[in-house]
Amino acid sequence: MKKSTGFEIREEERQSWGSIAMVWIGSVICVPALMVGGMLGNGLSMGGLVLAILTGYALVCVFMCFMGMLGCDTGLPTAVMASSALGEKGAKYIISAVLAISCIGWFGIQAAVCGESFSSMLADMTGVMIPVWLSSIVWGVIMLLTACFRFAGLKWLNKIAVPLLGIVLAYTLIDTLAGGGMQVLSGYEPASPMSFVSAVSATVGSFVVAAAISGDYCRFAKSRADVVKSSIVGVVPAGLGILLIGAVLAICAGTYDISVVLSSSGLPLVGLIALILATWTTNVSNAYSGGLSLSVLLGQDEKKSQITTAIAGIVGTVLAAAGILNSIQGFLSLLSAIVPALIGTMIADYWILGKGKMEGFRMREGFYAPGIVSFLAGALVACVTGGTFASIPVLSFLNIPFFIGPVNGIVTAILVYIVPAGIRSRKN
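Above: the chain sequence. Below: its structure as tokens.
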């Protein structure tokens, strides 16, 4: 890498692996993860559930480690690192756009969910009804302000919020089991049996986008070993815990919604705190990564990332308040489904052809055809085999479920990239 991109971090900005792990824990613990756990709990025995979750997160951690170590080596965020595999214009106009739109959209959706739940629970507790649009704006702005402090904001938020979330989740689980949950679990039979592969696929899909953008956070790691430690410790225990809690709540309480469970047990305030913290820790990452990608898309550098993060958060918050995000959630899901293909393209470029050495990393000018074709091929395979097109009527004929959609896309991207890119490298 011969020229500065304006995104390289200084050595004194490197963080301990524990700080990065805390960010991952905060990202894993979220309401959608409880939903996934509830879905899996309705389809698998507890033993099969644990094995599926561990297998899924193990796959995610492998991808996270490769992407994170690349970020650690280069000191660059994902949207910039992609220049080596797709060319600077490919990274700017394709990858940055996809990541920015996806992160901003999901930021808005999470802010809207938080605002709606806050207004509803506050009305139940006090009788005071705050408009949902106002709650969405307030919480969107609070989350945005945290993200504007960049990694330092994420680090300190998660240091405070993660232990509190752990206490609330532990209480929720104990309260549910003590209220007759143990008897329900002991005689539990899955209502809608699910295959093991489908369960692993759902687990991978719930966090694989985080693996793709792990360079945004792991670039702060001090070594490759720290990337591995932070990824495993930050993802596997928290992921297993939150999905199991979602499953237990779905089986025993009939809902995966912590706020509902705690409200029914007489502790609505605790439920409200849990919901806000779970959304906050995840959504700050959406704003931060969305801001970085927007910086690349707009041709700015890291110095302007606070401004672009603010723009990303404001746009997401306005969309949340306007109440139009539900109509585009399918589009956002489609974008999220194609992101994992980037992992395969970048693994092939840096780890296979470049042999994992910095000498093999270079910022290619313009559009790099092998990388773009590889990414598009992987994205298509991931969508076709992962069920993405099942909910899109005009494309439902392309729904051909097979194995694990994101993994299929990653493997396809690797295979498609190494042949033409390898030939070009030998010619050069």
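Residues 341 and 410 are 5 Å apart (CA to CA).
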